[in-house]
């Protein structure tokens, strides 16, 4: 199962060998300075956005890989029935969201708390994830 850690000045999603093969990529790394907001989503399906671009998605069993939507791309390593740690990123990175399942609520809150403490540019204006922009709407 994928693990999310903070190494030096980066967020690292470490994938197992079979997850690397399924996702068609190696470990995911983004700078901690790119972290915008960290939340825990208790309903795993709410963390999924867009359509599967690469990787594998078996409904009700596993979603692993890159997902594409109108605001960019997300990386998901999600298993149903488990809480999901969602890390929203500033637009300067290749992904807009990193979503990784945790074993239980305690592990999810611990991981989220860690990233909230070590990320230098956290937007604390709201504790919830922001919705995707609608292409035809202006601000």
How would you characterize the overall build of this protein?
The chain is an alpha+beta fold and 139 residues long. Helix content is 15%, strand content 40%. The chain has one domain (3-118). The chain has a 6-stranded mixed sheet. It has helices at residues 17-23, 105-118, and strands spanning 3-7, 10-14, 28-31, 35-41, 51-58, 62-69, 72-78, 84-89, 97-101. The protein is globular and about 35 Å long.
Give a brief rundown of this model:
With 139 residues, the protein is an alpha+beta fold. The protein contains two helices and nine strands, in the order ββαβββββββα. A six-stranded mixed β-sheet has the order 4-8-9-7-6-5. A three-stranded antiparallel β-sheet has the order 1-2-3, with helices on one face.
Strand order of the largest sheet: 4-8-9-7-6-5
Q: Please give the alpha-carbon distance between the first and last residues.
A: 39 Å
What is the residue-mean pLDDT, rounded to a whole number? 89
Strand content: 35-45%
Question: Could you outline the blueprint of secondary structure elements for this entry?
Answer:
Blueprint: E1 3-7, E2 10-14, H1 17-23, E3 28-31, E4 35-41, E5 51-58, E6 62-69, E7 72-78, E8 84-89, E9 97-101, H2 105-118
């Amino acid at each position: 199962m994928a693990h999310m850690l903070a190494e030096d000045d980066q967020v690292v999603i470490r994938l197992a060998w079979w997850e690397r093969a399924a996702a068609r990529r190696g470990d995911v790394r983004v700078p901690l300075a790119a972290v915008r907001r960290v939340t825990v989503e208790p309903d795993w399906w709410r963390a999924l956005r867009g359509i599967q671009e690469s990787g594998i998605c078996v409904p009700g069993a596993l979603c692993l890989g890159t997902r594409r939507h109108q605001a960019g791309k997300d990386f998901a390593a999600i298993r149903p029935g488990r809480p999901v740690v969602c890390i929203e990123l500033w637009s300067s990175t290749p992904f807009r969201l990193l979503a990784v399942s945790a074993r239980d609520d305690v592990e999810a809150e611990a991981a989220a708390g860690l990233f909230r403490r070590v990320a230098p540019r956290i937007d604390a204006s709201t504790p919830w994830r922001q919705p995707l922009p609608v292409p035809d709407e202006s601000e």
